[in-house]
Design goal:
Elements (H helix, E strand, L loop, with lengths): L7 H18 L1 H6 L1 H26 L5 H18 L2 H12 L11 E4 L1 H5 L2 H4 L3 H7 L3 E4 L3 E2 L13 E5 L6 H13 L3 E6 L3 E3 L3 H7 L3 H4 L4 E2 L3 H7 L14 E4 L4 E4 L6 E3 L5 H15 L5 E4 L17 H17 L4 E4 L5 H4 L10 E3 L1 H13 L3 H10 L7 E5 L12 H6 L4 H12 L11 E3 L9 E3 L2 H4 L2 H6 L3 H20 L3 E5 L44 H17 L9 E4 L6 E8 L2 E8 L5 E3 L1 H6 L6 E3 L4 E3 L5 E3 L4 E5 L2
Parallel strand pairs: 1-2, 1-17, 2-5, 5-11, 11-12, 12-13, 13-14, 14-17
Antiparallel strand pairs: 3-4, 6-10, 7-9, 8-9, 15-16, 18-19, 19-20, 20-25, 21-24, 22-23, 22-25
Helix pairs in contact: 1-3, 1-4, 3-4, 3-14, 4-13, 16-17, 22-23
Bound molecules: alpha-D-glucopyranose (GLC).
Alpha-D-glucopyranose binds next to loops.
């Protein structure tokens, strides 16, 4: 028997009650745009039921739930009215092409504005550089007002409506968004919604004893509840501090601070927090942001007696935000930043939740396969864990501003004969250069003496052996490092999803150890790969003799090739077993186009035999799209060390 769902009826009723009031309140503005208002209402009626259901799940038990609904509908209308016309046009455009981001034409980049161009005003001058690279998606790392000194690289936000004055102004940001949009580049920003800095006005009011704002955070007069919570919580930055609570002298209370002591966790069981953050989100959307990277999604709901990660309500909150964006700013997409177990990562990906997600598993396993020269764990995991729900895709990165954690599933590892604990130890040794024969120059991050866990910092090129090779002045080693970089890039660009370039990696940026002399950074080794170093030839791309130019050029070639191949859009990815432990292969297909991609993780030549190739679809002479060489029908495929081939088997 289908269970009776009582919720649609009250959802409809509540809207019928609240909407006329809101219409009255905004009558003057709404009369100016009756046609637009009509379209808004269509979206509102479409999304309201699920929004109601989510909100009811979160706050329905509270005595003032109807007030919550009123306030939220009011905010939706207000921020829609404030939305600039050109963005409303973009909303309409995206509504007719909602899957634009699944295209092979989409290529992303991410950078810190202050490190890259000092400030927003100067970033404008580099749009041509982004165009040369072929970017269509640009993520600017957090650039909001933050406390001076350590602010977790911008992730301790003091004001979501103000840009860090050293970087620029909100007006400059929205101008930049428009300029990028004109060039076909979507602007992406972080939405740091799990916590604010302890200098945010809400935190300040809480400190001054205002009960309404104390209720924005988790604060406790004594250790009773903190101690109960603490039993199940993990330390995120164990080298910086132990425990997840911070004593606030002004309030004389303990505050929940999952990350750093100056990052106060917001209390989403308070509907005012939900509404207030939704307003901050729409404010940003109205500046022209097209994708919000939802920071630390796994942590946003706390439940005593659990590790306070990946709680069901975390999903409900994001889904509620998603329903609201579909009403106010339909072009806005969410990207999930869930760096947790792969079983949990996938849970955030859904059309009604986050359409995009970082792919930490692919990232970790590419580095894993590079170290072991074997692809069994990569192949096994990707076969089982790559597919995403319809209308969604991965954001594939090799390096980002954070560390590398070995987030593969233990049972997956055991299934292919790997001891997960010993393997993580090996990988950590390998990437910190502490393993015989290792070429990697990684730096340990957050060693936890209690658990023995550690993660890895370092740039793409330094981890791939370039720094070591340059130090040794060994051209052969340099070549090998370049080949490793190109191998990982080839997979990143072709396996399906949006490739996200960490700017600097396009020219082979090496580790930067200057953070060791900066007291605000010395305890955070992630600064080794957050470098101010610039490639001087960045604007003068004629300097073709340099390694930097070669890296850059090869990156661009690969992006360009991707954009010509519809088979590389999202979907149609099938892992194949190559019968060679060093070769990682997959098919990509769309309509009539079919491409077989084989990647050699060994530095030695590796073979895939003709018979097996035939079974994988190579039925005649085929072209390797990377170098236009022909593989004749009936011959074995021999790949050079770290070579990647894209065979057109259409
Ligand atoms: C995310 C960010 C990381 C930051 C943390 C806390 O994981 O990527 O850099 O430290 O959130 O905001």
């Amino acid at each position: 028997m289908v269970e009776y769902d009582w919720r649609p009826e009250p959802a409809r009723k509540s809207l019928n009650r609240i909407l006329p009031e809101v219409e009255k309140m905004f009558a003057a503005e709404l009369q100016k745009a009756p046609h637009e208002w009509h379209k808004f209402k269509i979206r509102l009626h479409r999304e309201w039921e699920r929004l109601f259901i989510y909100l009811h799940q979160l706050y329905g038990w509270q005595y003032d739930f109807f007030y919550t609904l009123q306030r939220i509908l009011h905010s939706l209308v207000q921020y829609w009215l404030e939305r600039p016309v050109e963005l409303k046009l973009l909303d309409e455009k995206r509504e007719t092409d909602p899957h634009w981001f699944l295209s092979e034409k989409v290529v992303g980049g991410v950078l810190y504005v202050d490190l890259f161009s000092d400030n927003l005003a100067k970033l404008d001058d580099h749009i041509s550089y982004f165009k040369k690279l072929g970017l269509t998606y640009l993520h600017l790392m957090p650039l909001f007002a933050v406390p001076k000194g350590d602010n977790d690289g911008g992730y301790a936000v003091s004001d979501y409506r103000a840009i860090n004055p050293d970087i620029g102004t909100m007006e400059e940001l929205s101008k930049l968004a428009a300029a990028l949009r004109d060039e076909g580049i979507s602007l992406v920003l972080d939405f740091v919604f799990n916590h604010t800095s302890d200098e945010h006005i809400w935190a300040q009011k809480a400190k001054s004893g205002d009960p309404d704002f104390m209720a924005y955070y988790y604060t406790y007069p004594d250790r009773e509840l903190p101690d109960q919570f603490q039993k199940y919580l993990r330390d995120i930055f164990p080298t910086v501090r132990k425990g997840s609570f911070t004593w606030c002298e002004e309030m004389k209370r303990w505050v929940l601070t999952t990350f750093n002591s100056f990052q106060w966790d917001l209390n989403y069981s308070n509907p005012e927090v939900f509404r207030a953050m939704a307003e901050e989100m729409f404010f940003l959307a109205n500046q022209g942001i097209e994708v919000l990277r939802l920071d630390a999604v796994a942590f946003i709901w706390k439940r005593l007696g659990t590790n306070c990660e990946n709680q069901p309500e975390a999903h409900t909150i994001i889904r509620a935000f998603n329903a609201m964006t579909k009403i106010v700013a339909p072009c806005l997409l969410f990207k999930s930043e869930a760096i947790v177990h792969p079983d949990e990562v996938i849970q955030y990906i859904h059309r009604d939740e986050c359409q995009l997600s970082y792919n930490p598993l692919l990232m970790a396993l590419l580095w894993e396969a590079l170290a072991t020269r074997e692809v069994k764990l990569l192949e096994y995991s990707m076969r089982n864990r790559y597919p995403t729900p319809a209308g969604c895709t991965w954001v594939n990165f090799i390096r980002c501003h954070d560390d590398i954690g070995w987030t593969f599933d233990d049972q997956d590892a055991r299934n292919v004969g790997i001891d997960p604990v010993a393997h993580r130890k090996f990988l950590n040794k390998f990437y910190t250069g502490d393993y015989p024969g290792s070429y990697a120059k990684g730096v340990p991050f957050q060693f936890n003496a209690d658990t023995g866990d550690v993660r890895i910092s370092g740039t793409f090129s330094s981890l791939a052996g370039l720094e070591d090779a340059i130090e040794k002045q060994d051209n052969e080693l340099i070549e090998q490092a370049v080949r490793r970089v190109n191998l990982l890039r080839s997979i990143q660009v072709s396996i399906g999803g949006i490739p996200l370039l960490y700017i600097g990696d396009e020219w082979g940026m090496l580790n930067d150890y200057t953070y060791l002399t900066d007291p605000g950074k010395v305890n955070d080794s992630r600064w080794v790969h957050r470098s101010r170093k610039r490639w001087n030839a960045r604007e003068d791309l004629t300097d073709q003799d340099t390694l930097e130019w070669r890296f850059f050029h090869e990156m661009v070639e690969l992006f360009n090739l991707r954009k010509k191949l519809p088979a590389l859009q999202n979907g149609g990815m099938e892992i194949i077993h190559t019968e060679n432990p060093h070769l990682f292969g997959y098919n990509r297909a769309f309509k009539d186009q079919k491409i077989l991609i084989i990647n050699n993780f060994s530095e030695k030549p590796q073979k895939m035999d003709a018979l097996h190739l035939n079974a994988c679809g190579v039925k005649r002479d085929v072209v390797n799209l990377i170098n236009n060489e022909i593989l004749s029908s009936g011959s074995d495929l021999v790949l050079n060390g770290h070579q990647s081939v894209w065979l057109d088997i259409s």
